[in-house]
Amino acid sequence: MSDVRHRLSELRREFHRHPEPGWREFRTTGRIVSELERIGVDEIAIGRDALETDARMAVPDPEELDPWLNRAREAGVRPDVLEKTADGHTGVVAVLERGEGPRVGLRVDMDGISMRESADPDHRPTAEGFRSEHDGYMHACGHDGHIAIGLGTLEAIKNSEFTGTFVVFFQPAEEISGGGKAMAEGGYLDGVDYLFAAHLGLDNPTGTVVAGIEKPLAMAHLTVTFEGASAHAGKAPNEGANAMQAAATAIQNAYAIPRHSDGMTRVNVGRIEGGTASNVIAEEITLEGEVRGETTALMEYTRTELERVLYAAAEMHDCDVTPRVISESPRVDSDPALRDLVGAVARGLNGVDSVVESVEFGVSEDVTYLMERVQEDGGLASYLLVGTDHPTNHHTPTFDIDDESLEIGVSVLSDAVLECSRRRP
Amino acid sequence: MSDVRHRLSELRREFHRHPEPGWREFRTTGRIVSELERIGVDEIAIGRDALETDARMAVPDPEELDPWLNRAREAGVRPDVLEKTADGHTGVVAVLERGEGPRVGLRVDMDGISMRESADPDHRPTAEGFRSEHDGYMHACGHDGHIAIGLGTLEAIKNSEFTGTFVVFFQPAEEISGGGKAMAEGGYLDGVDYLFAAHLGLDNPTGTVVAGIEKPLAMAHLTVTFEGASAHAGKAPNEGANAMQAAATAIQNAYAIPRHSDGMTRVNVGRIEGGTASNVIAEEITLEGEVRGETTALMEYTRTELERVLYAAAEMHDCDVTPRVISESPRVDSDPALRDLVGAVARGLNGVDSVVESVEFGVSEDVTYLMERVQEDGGLASYLLVGTDHPTNHHTPTFDIDDESLEIGVSVLSDAVLECSRRRP
Amino acid sequence: MSDVRHRLSELRREFHRHPEPGWREFRTTGRIVSELERIGVDEIAIGRDALETDARMAVPDPEELDPWLNRAREAGVRPDVLEKTADGHTGVVAVLERGEGPRVGLRVDMDGISMRESADPDHRPTAEGFRSEHDGYMHACGHDGHIAIGLGTLEAIKNSEFTGTFVVFFQPAEEISGGGKAMAEGGYLDGVDYLFAAHLGLDNPTGTVVAGIEKPLAMAHLTVTFEGASAHAGKAPNEGANAMQAAATAIQNAYAIPRHSDGMTRVNVGRIEGGTASNVIAEEITLEGEVRGETTALMEYTRTELERVLYAAAEMHDCDVTPRVISESPRVDSDPALRDLVGAVARGLNGVDSVVESVEFGVSEDVTYLMERVQEDGGLASYLLVGTDHPTNHHTPTFDIDDESLEIGVSVLSDAVLECSRRRP
Amino acid sequence: MSDVRHRLSELRREFHRHPEPGWREFRTTGRIVSELERIGVDEIAIGRDALETDARMAVPDPEELDPWLNRAREAGVRPDVLEKTADGHTGVVAVLERGEGPRVGLRVDMDGISMRESADPDHRPTAEGFRSEHDGYMHACGHDGHIAIGLGTLEAIKNSEFTGTFVVFFQPAEEISGGGKAMAEGGYLDGVDYLFAAHLGLDNPTGTVVAGIEKPLAMAHLTVTFEGASAHAGKAPNEGANAMQAAATAIQNAYAIPRHSDGMTRVNVGRIEGGTASNVIAEEITLEGEVRGETTALMEYTRTELERVLYAAAEMHDCDVTPRVISESPRVDSDPALRDLVGAVARGLNGVDSVVESVEFGVSEDVTYLMERVQEDGGLASYLLVGTDHPTNHHTPTFDIDDESLEIGVSVLSDAVLECSRRRP
C-alpha cells in the first residue's frame, strides 16, 4: 500500500463511511492500528493500555457498546484489538522514538455523532459514494479528516530529520467529552514538552490557519433524576410527590441562575423524559443538562448554583434528586509562544494564504484536559485550526470538508513538530 | 334615655359613624359599657379582664394602636375603660345572673374595616348623615348592627322570664381573626351550655332567617419575609442572594400545592412588597398570604405544604425565610339540635317570612374558636344569619343594611335564648 | 357448551388470560361474538356497525393496532370480525327483541391496561394458571369479569319472561375514555328507556351492592406539543426558541390554575418527553395531561384555563403549541328513581348482604356519554357497583376479583332489567 | 470672594451639605449660577433654556418636586432661577467665547442620591461639620466634587491662553439616567469638537488618572404594572385575574432570558409592590426593573425579550400589563485619540503618579447620550476618571473623597481643554 500522504483523501473517505460514536470506535481503532503497523512505529498502546480506566467519563452501558463491538468483529477487526478496546476502551497511542530531543505530542480525535447523513445527490459523500454506511451515524464534524491528518503527520515525521520523541494520541469520545481526561492520565502524556491538536474548519476556509485558539468554554454535562411518588391524579393528587412539578421548578430556576461578574456562563436543560400516564402523578423525571463557563471557576460556580436549585426543587415537592456529572472539561488556552511557532511555520507553507494568530473558541473541547496537564508540567500546548471549505455547518447532515485541506494539515503539523525538535525545550 | 329596643336604629347609626378596626375598638368598647351600665347587668368584664392576653392574635404595633386610643380619650371615653383596653385589649363581656338554669352565651363582633365609605349622595349613610366620621374606615360588614342587636337582646332577656345565666361576649378583632381565641379562653365561656352568634345579611334579604350555618372554612393568615443579600444588579448580580427570585418561586409553587382528596382547600398570596431600586438585587421581600380548608385538617395540610414551599424557595436562592402565622380559626359547624330550636322559634316570628335550615358558609369566622370550646365541653352552638336588604356586597364602600332587620335579630335571638332556659340543659 | 351461568368463572378466566388494550380488543370481540351466537340473539352489530367512527377518541396509530390484529388472526378470530373491527373499530352490540315493552340497555366495558401482571405464586391467577398471556398487559380493573357478567345477564334475560327490547353494548376503550362517545352515537342507544352499567369492586366487598354512583368526574385527556427552534446552547442560546422553558412555565402555571368556587377541579401533567441533547436548546417537548371537574362545566373551565396557560407559555418563549384533546367524558349522575329500583331488587337477592343507596364516584368513566344521551332523551340511567373481594387496589399487578361475585352481578342486573319490563316506561 | 481654585474644598463641602436628587437640584443650580456670574462667562443658559424638555426622562411627579423647590426658595435661590428650573428643568450651561478655535465641552453631573449619610464621628463630613443637611439624601457618589472641579476648570480656562469656545454642561439627574438625553439635545452640544467628562474615584486612589473609560453598559430602567381583577380568595378565587401570579411568572422568566452570544447582558427586577390583603386576589402589582447590555443592541435584545415575557405572563393570567421605559442610556466608548491626549497631558502633571490608558467601566452613565451625539457629528469624546482616596464604596453612607484630588481634576481637565485649542480640530 502506498504512503499515507498519497492516500489522505482515500483514507478520510474510508473513515467517513464508518463513523462510530464515542467509546464505540472499535473498527476505527482497528484500522488506525493497521496503518500504524504499516508506517512502522516504536510502540503502539491500544485501548486499556493507553487510557486511565477510572478517568473515563460518559461511558455507555454494555448494551449500547456491544452491537458496535460485534459489528467491528464482523468487519474483520483483530481479536487482540477488540479485547483491548472492549468495555469502553477504544483509542490508541503511537510512539516514535528518534533519539535525543523534546517529547512532542499530537492529539487526534476520532468519533462520529448520531445524525443521519443526507442522502441528497448534491451532498458530495452521497454523489461520490462515501456516504456513511452506519445508518443514523455520521462524521459530521471532520474527525475522519483528523485521523487522516494524524496518520499523515506521523508518517511525515518518521521520514523527517526530527529528533526526540513523537507521540500521537488517537483519543476516543471527544464529542461526549468522555475520553480527554482518561487519555491525559494514561501515562503517555507525561513529560510532553509540546502538545499540538488541530481541528478542521469551524468557519475557516481552505488556506486559512489559526495558530492557536483561546477561550474554549469549561463545561460539565449532567443527568438529573427526580424521584417522587405516584398517585392517582384525580382521586388523590395530595398522596403523590410530584416529580413533574419538581422538574419544572428546577428548569425555570436553572435558566435564572444569576449571571456572573467575572464573565460568561451558560446553563441548559436539553433533554427531559418521565412520568407514565396523564392520570398519574409523575414518579420519576430525568433531565440531561449542562453548564459552561468562560473559565473553569465560572463553570463550577454555575454547577454549584444548579445543584442548589435541583436539591431545593426536589425538597419543595417532597422528592429526591440525584444529579450526576457525566463528563466535563476545563478551560485552557493555547500558549502564545507555541502559537507563534505555529504561525511562523504556517506563513511559509504552500497553500496557506492567511494565518490568524488566535480566535476565541466559544465552545468546549476535552483536549483541554491534555493541554492543562502539559502546561502544569511546564510544557506548551496549542490547539490550532486548519481551514477547510465546508458547505454547511458542523453537526448538520450535509457537512463535508475539502480534501485539499488534509495535506495542508499534515504540512502545518509536521513542520511545527519538526520546528520543536530544532528549538529543543 | 329610652330602652334600647326603641333606639336600635339610632344606636346602630351611632356606631356606624365611629368604626374602629380590630384591637382598636376603644370608643366602641366605651359606648357598649355605658349602655350595659344603663341596662343594668350583674357583671361587666372589660378588656384584659375578659380576654386571655396570650391567646390574642394579629395585634397591631403600639404605633398603630395609640392614635385610636388618643382619639377615644378625646371623645370622652372613661379612663378606667381605656386603661383596661389599652395595648390591644378591647372588648367586653356582660353577665346577667337570673337564678337556676342553663348558661347561655351570645357572641357579638364589633370591629370595622379599613375602607373609605362612599360619599355618594345615593348612599343612605351619606344622605341621612351617619356616614363614617373616621376617614378611611367603615362598618362595611354590619358589625354596627350586630352591636345594636346584642344590646337589644340583653335588654330583652333582662326584661323576660329567663332563668339561668346569660353572657354576652362583645368580641374585638373578628375581621382579622384576632379576637376569637382570646375570648374563648377568657374564662367567661366556661360552662356555657348554649352559644349563639349571628350575622346580618350575607345575601339573605330582610325577613329571612338561616337557623345555623355549616362549613365555615378553617383558615390561617401568614406573613412571610424572605431575606437575602443585596448586590449591584449590573456589576455583580452573582454576589446577591435574590429575595425577589425566592419570592417568585414561592408564589408560583404556593398556588400549585396539590388539591386534596378530602375536600376543598385554598391558598392565596394577596400582598407583596420589597426591594429598593431597579439596579439592586432585592434583599428583602414580604408577602401576606392565607390558607384555608374545608376542615381544620385540610387547612393544616395546606399550611404545611406552603411552609415547605417557602423554605425550599428560600434555600434555592440562598435566602432565609420567616413565615409567621398571624391569626387562624378552625372549622366548626352549627349543632343540628340548636339549629332546630332556632328554626322553630324563628318560624313563629313577626317579620320573618322565610326560615332556612342551614347554608354552607364558605368563608371563615373566628367565632369557631368559641363554638369549638363549647362543643368540646358538651354544649351546643349555632351561628345564625339574620337577613337584611343590603344594596351592595359586604366589604364594599356602599354597603348598608336595612334597619328593620335589627328588631328581627333581637326577636330571634332573645326568643331562642329564652327557649333554652325553658328546655334546660 | 354449557350455559354461561355455569361458566362465569371459566369465561372470566379465559378473558383474563387475554387482555387487550383499548381499540385493540380484536380477540375479545371475536370471543364475545362467538358466545352471542351460541346464546342466540336477534341482532349482532360488530365494530364499525356498532360505533360512530367519527366520534371515536384516543385511537392509536396503525402501527400500534396491527400487531394486535395479527395476534388475534393467529388466535383464530374470524376474518369477518377482524374486517369489521380493523382500524380501531372493536366492540359489539347484541340485541334481543322480545315484543312490546321498554328498550333496556346494559353497557359492558372490555379492555385491559398496560401493566405486567404479577408472577408471584401467591397471586391467584398465577397459582391457578390464568395469568395474562399477553406480557405487559393485564385485566387489572375487572373488565374480564364485566364481560362474563354481561354475557350471563343476556342469557338470563333471554330465558326470562322479559318483554321489550334488551340491548347489550360491549364497549371498547373505556380505560382511555375513547369508546363511550362512539358507542353513544352508534345508533343502538336511540330510544333506550333504561340504561344500566356496572363495575366490580372499587373497595366494596363481595355481598355489597351500590345501587347507583353519583359524581363521577368530568374529564379530558390532552397531548400538548411545544415547538421552538434548536440552537447550540453554548455558542448561541439566544438563537433558539426554547421549548423546554415553555413547557416548564406551562407546567408550573397549569398546577396553579385557580380553584373554583363551584367545586372540585383537577389538573395534571403526567408525561413529558423532548429535546435531543444536553448541549442543544430543545426544539420540541411533548406533554400528556388531563383536567377533571366535579361537573362538566368545571372540567371545561379548567381546560379553558389550561389552554390559555399553554398558549401564553409558548408565546413567552417564541414557540408554537398544539394542544390536542385526545378523549373526554362528561359528568352524569345515576337517576335516583332507577337507583331505587336497583336497590329494591338487590335487597331481595341471595348473596347480597349490604345495599348502599349511592356513593360518590370521584373518578371518571366514559359510560357517562351513554348515560347523558339516555337522560337527554327522557330515559333513566344508573351505574351500579357490584362488590367483590379484591386483594389489592385496582390497577395494581396483584389485582384479582372474587369469582363468587360474578353470579351476584348477573342476578342484580338481570332482575333489574326484568323489573324494568314490569314497570314499563 | 476669592478664586474658585482656592475654594475647591470649601465649595465641594458646601455642595456636600445640600444634596438634591435628580430634577430637584434647584439650590444647586442657583449656587452654580452665582459662581458663574462671579467668574464671568459669556452666556448662561438656565434650566429650560439649556434642556430639550421632551427628551427628559424619569421626571418625578410635581408632589415630589415642589417641596424641594420650596426649600430652595426659602434658602434664598433667586426667583428667575426657580422659574426657569421649575417642573423638572434643573441644570445650567455656561459658555465662554474666546475667538477662533475649536468648540470644547465639559459635562459635569450634580445630583445626590436618597441615602441617609452616616452620623458616625469617624465619618469625616460628620467630624468636620459638612454632613448632609438634607436628611435622607447624600452626595454619596462624588458629584459635589465634580461641581467644584467643573467650576474650577471654567475659571482656569478663562484665565488661560485658550482660544475657541468652551462650554460647561452642568447636567441634572445623572443617577436616574434622566438628564443626559435632554442636555444632549438642548442645542449647546451642537458643533462640539471635543467633549470631556470626568468621574472621581471608582476605586482609583488619589494620584491616578484613567485617560478614558470604555464599555459602559447600555441600560434601560422600566416600571411595569400588572392589572387584573380582585376577588375573594376563599369564596371565588376563579373570579379574579391574579396579578400576583402574573408577576411571579414574569419575574421567573425574566431572569431566565437567554444569555446572548454577542456578549454580556443583565436583567433585574429590583422592586415590587402590590395587592391589598391576604384574602383578596391581587388586582395590581407594580415592578421596577432594568436591563443592561455590553452594547446598545444587547440591551435592546434583552428589553425586547423582557417585554415578550411580560405580555405573555399577563395574558396567561388574564391580566393587562403596561411596561414603561423610565430612562435609558446607550453604550459609547471614549475615543482613543482623545484618550491619548488626556494621557499625555496627565503624565506631566504634579500630583499624578499613575496614568491608566483605559478601563472597562462595567456600569451605566447617561453621559453616553452626549458622547454619542458628539461622535456622530464627527467630534471626539472621552470620559476620564480622576482618582481619589475614598474610604468606602460609592453609594454607601460613609462615602467620602479626598479633597486633594479636586485640584488634580482641575489641572487635568483644564490642560486637556487647552491642549485641544492648540491642536485645533
TrEMBL record, chains A, B, C, D:
Coiled coil: none
Co-factor note (free text): The Mn(2+) ion enhances activity.
Superkingdom of this protein's organism: Archaea
MF terms (GO), sorted A to Z: dipeptidase activity; metal ion binding; para-aminobenzoyl-glutamate hydrolase activity
Domain spans labelled Peptidase M20 dimerisation: 220-313
SUPFAM superfamilies: Bacterial exopeptidase dimerisation domain, Zn-dependent exopeptidases
GO BP of this protein: folic acid catabolic process
Cofactor: Mn(2+)
Keyword Transport: no
Keywords: Hydrolase, Manganese, Metal-binding
Pfam families in the record: M20_dimer, Peptidase_M20
Record-listed Mn(2+) binding positions: C141, H143, E175, H199, H395
UniProt GO cellular component terms: cytoplasm
Gene3D superfamilies recorded: Zn peptidases
Protein name, UniProt field: Amidohydrolase
